[in-house]
Amino acid sequence: MSIVVTAATGQLGRLVVDELLTRAAADRVVAVARNERKAARIAAKGVEVRIADYGKPETLKNVFGVCDVALLISGTEFGQRTAQHRNVIDAAKATGVARLTYTSVLGGLIEGGYKEAAEQHKPTEQAIVESGLTYTLLRNGWYTENYTAQIPGQLKHGVVGAAGEGKIGSATRADFAAAAAVVLTSGGHENKIYELSGDSAWSFAEYAAELSLQSGTEIAYRDVPVETLAAVFSRAGIPAEQAYNYAEIDLGIKRGLLQGGSGELSRLIGRPTTPLAETISAALKG
Q1: Torsion, CA 30, CA 88, CA 243, CA 160, rounded to 10
Q2: In the chain, N or C terminus with fewer CB closer than 10 Å?
Q3: CA–CA gap between residue 82 and residue 223 (Å, rounded)
Q4: What is the per-residue DSSP string for 101-113?
Q5: Are 217 and 223 in contact (CB under 8 A)?
Q6: What pLDDT does residue 46 have?
Q7: Distance between CA atoms of 12 and 17, rounded to whole angstroms?
Q8: Where are the alpha helices (H) located in the chain, listed in sequence order?
Q9: DSSP string, 36-50
């Protein structure tokens, strides 16, 4: 039985592979990637690399083996993800994968009807359940790095959002990667759904205050209408429809749909999740 990780060279995937290698022998781990060159770092660790593309079903035929445990990391191609995920699900079912794990999003955002979730996560979850495969759904909250990656701009222009006083129960990618590795290497997760979020939730105003404290620069949070936020994203080069969908997520944050609070993430990984202050500090240090 192998442990197969798709999108293994992505920001989350490579962390999952690294975490797996602390829990399982390298010859049990299979990394799936689109680009062999990008996967060279993983291959150098003794991990088998298989080249495949979510959007090309013919490349997925030999990705999985009978009784493998597999992780489907959600795709990044806007408007194509549901169809691409179905290709992976079909390949996993045809091969006889023992269990398929999927990185979804917190259920509140799914049930809230926000397009970013409805366009990929809800139909993918439904397709997995309807496939008859044994599954685990990891409903991940937001990555703290979604915001700390913007620190250079925030130091110049402040923090801009449309979330009001809503709070985000974020955690780091490494925290979520650790949870995926636990689920992939242990039993008792069959046909379960985990709502995963950080131990502490924060508002954009609190984020700006912490960034101010650590950087020594006064950073303000400016709350704007969702249309204004979408325009900011568009000016940053994000296509208009996608920009609005990203901005709309702030309305979900405002409603508390990404606040989390289940405690399931820290219970799975056996430690507290990484605090916001620590992630900001690491980002400032580069």
Answers
A1: -40
A2: C
A3: 32
A4: EEEEE-HHHHHTT
A5: no
A6: 97
A7: 9
A8: 13-20, 40-43, 81-95, 107-111, 115-118, 121-131, 145-148, 151-157, 173-185, 204-215, 226-235, 240-254, 264-269, 276-285
A9: TTTTHHHHTTT-EEE
Note the residue count of the chain: 286
Residues 158 and 222 sit within 8 Å (Cβ to Cβ): yes
Q: Which letter does DSSP use for residue 26 in this model?
A: G
Distances (CA, A) of 278 to 112, 197, 282: 31, 16, 6
Q: Is the pTM of this model over 0.90?
A: yes
User: Three-class SS of residue 143?
Assistant: strand
Q: What is the DSSP string of 190-209?
A: TTEEEEE--SS-EEHHHHHH
The predicted pLDDT at position 270 comes to 98
Which tokens belong to 205?
A: 């105003």
Query: Which among 85, 250, 236, 92 has a CA at the least distance from the CA of 165?
Result: 250
For residue 50, the model assigns a pLDDT of 97
Query: Taking the alpha carbons of 277, 280, 285, 286 in that order, is the dihedral positive or negative?
Result: positive
pLDDT along the chain (286 residues), means of 10: 96 98 97 96 97 96 95 89 96 97 94 82 96 98 96 95 98 98 98 98 98 97 96 88 89 95 97 98 95
Indicate the pairing of strand 99-105 with strand 135-140. Answer: parallel
- 199, two tokens: 């131990």
Bridge-based pairing of strands 167-168 and 159-161 is unpaired
How far is the CA of 225 from the CAs of 83, 84, 244, 248, in angstroms?
32, 33, 11, 10
